[in-house]
C-alpha cells in the first residue's frame, strides 16, 4: 500500500472509534477529539522542524565526502571508466568487422572476380586444377610405390618428369638437297647490266613559287615523304619517285586519299592533266592481281 492509502485508513479508523465513543459517552468523545487535535499539531510541528535539519545534514555529509575525494582519484576513476567504455566499443567494432564487414567484402570481391573472368573468357581459373595425361598418372603411381625412406628432391623429380623419350630427342637427319642446276650466265649477265644501267633521275626540287605543287607519299610503313614538283612535269615522275623510296611501280600503285581512286600515269600527261593542281596526299598501296 502507498503512503496516501495508509493515511486514509488511519483516519477512517480514528473516525470509527470517535463514532463508537459518541454513542456511549459524548463528553469523553469531545475530550479525546481535543487530545487528538493537540497530538496532531505537535507531530506536525516536530516534523516541520526536524525534516529540514535531516536534509541539511545529509547534504553536508555528501559535500564532505565529495571534498574528501582528491582530484587525482577522480581523474583516475574517469580514466578507468573511459578505458572500459573504449574496450567495449573496440570489442564490438572488432566483432562487427570480423563477422559482418569482412565476409560481405569477400563475397563482393568473389562476385567481381567471377564476373571479370567470365567476361574475359577465363572461366577456367574459377575451377580447381587437376593433372592431365596418362604418363603423369603413371609417374605418380610409380612414385607412390617407392619406399618412404628414399626422399627425392623436388627439382630432381621435376627433371625426371620433364625427360623426353629417345624417339623425340633423336636428331632427324636432313634430307640431301639436290645440287643447283647450271644456269647460263649468258642470259643473266645482260639482265643485270640493264638493271644496273637504269638509274632513276628525278628533276631538281623547285622553290615554293607559282606553278609548283607539294606532293606527299604515305607509304605502307607509315612514313610520309614530301617533295615539290612543277605542274608541267610528267606524271611518270611520281612513279620514279615512288620506286626511288623503295616501292617499285610493278608492285605498288598510287591512290588519292579522299575520294579514293587510282591515278593512271602516262609520259604524255602532266601533273596538271591528271588532276594534281594543288598540294596533294597520295597513298602507296600494293597492287593485287585481279
UniProtKB/TrEMBL annotation:
Keywords: Membrane, Signal, Transmembrane, Transmembrane helix
Gene3D superfamilies registered for this protein in UniProt: Phosphatidylinositol 3-kinase Catalytic Subunit, Chain A, domain 1
Domain UBX, chain residue ranges per copy: 208-284
Lineage of producing organism: Eukaryota, Metazoa, Chordata, Craniata, Vertebrata
Annotated source species: Leptobrachium leishanense (Leishan spiny toad)
Transmembrane residue ranges: 31-55
Signal sequence coordinates: 1-21
Keyword Transmembrane: yes
PANTHER family: FAS-ASSOCIATED PROTEIN, UBX DOMAIN-CONTAINING PROTEIN 8
Keyword match Signal: yes
A molecular-function term among this protein's GO annotations: ubiquitin binding
Protein name (record): UBX domain-containing protein
One record GO biological process: ERAD pathway
InterPro entries in the cross-refs: Ubiquitin-like_domsf, UBX_dom, UBX_domain-protein, UBXN8
Amino acid at each position: 500500500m502507498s503512503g496516501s492509502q495508509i493515511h486514509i485508513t488511519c483516519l477512517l479508523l480514528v473516525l470509527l472509534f470517535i463514532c463508537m465513543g459518541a454513542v456511549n459517552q459524548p463528553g469523553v468523545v469531545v475530550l479525546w477529539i481535543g487530545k487528538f487535535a493537540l497530538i496532531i499539531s505537535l507531530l506536525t510541528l516536530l516534523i516541520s522542524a526536524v525534516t529540514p535539519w535531516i536534509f541539511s545534514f545529509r547534504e553536508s555529509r555528501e559535500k564532505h565526502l565529495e571534498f574528501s575525494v582528491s582530484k587525482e582519484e577522480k581523474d583516475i576513476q574517469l580514466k578507468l571508466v573511459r578505458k572500459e567504455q573504449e574496450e567495449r566499443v573496440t570489442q564490438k567494432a572488432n566483432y562487427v568487422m570480423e563477422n559482418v564487414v569482412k565476409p560481405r567484402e569477400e563475397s563482393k570481391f568473389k562476385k567481381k572476380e567471377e564476373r571479370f573472368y567470365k567476361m574475359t573468357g577465363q572461366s577456367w581459373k574459377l575451377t580447381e586444377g587437376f593433372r592431365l595425361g596418362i604418363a603423369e598418372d603413371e609417374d605418380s603411381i610409380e612414385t607412390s610405390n617407392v619406399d618412404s625412406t628414399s626422399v627425392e628432391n623436388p627439382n630432381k623429380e621435376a627433371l625426371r618428369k620433364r625427360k623426353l623419350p629417345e624417339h623425340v630427342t633423336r636428331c632427324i637427319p636432313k634430307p640431301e638437297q639436290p645440287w643447283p642446276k647450271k644456269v647460263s650466265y649468258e642470259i643473266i649477265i645482260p639482265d643485270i647490266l640493264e638493271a644496273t644501267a637504269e638509274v632513276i633521275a628525278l628533276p631538281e626540287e623547285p622553290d615554293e613559287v607559282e606553278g609548283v605543287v607539294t606532293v606527299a607519299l604515305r607509304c605502307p610503313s607509315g612514313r610520309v615523304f614530301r617533295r615539290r614538283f612543277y605542274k608541267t612535269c610528267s606524271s611518270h615522275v611520281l612513279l620514279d619517285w615512288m620506286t626511288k623510296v623503295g616501292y617499285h611501280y610493278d608492285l605498288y600503285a598510287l591512290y588519292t586519299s579522299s575520294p579514293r581512286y587510282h591515278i593512271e600515269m602516262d609520259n604524255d600527261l602532266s601533273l596538271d592533266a591528271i588532276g594534281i593542281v594543288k598540294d596533294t596526299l597520295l597513298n602507296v598501296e600494293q597492287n593485287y592481281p585481279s
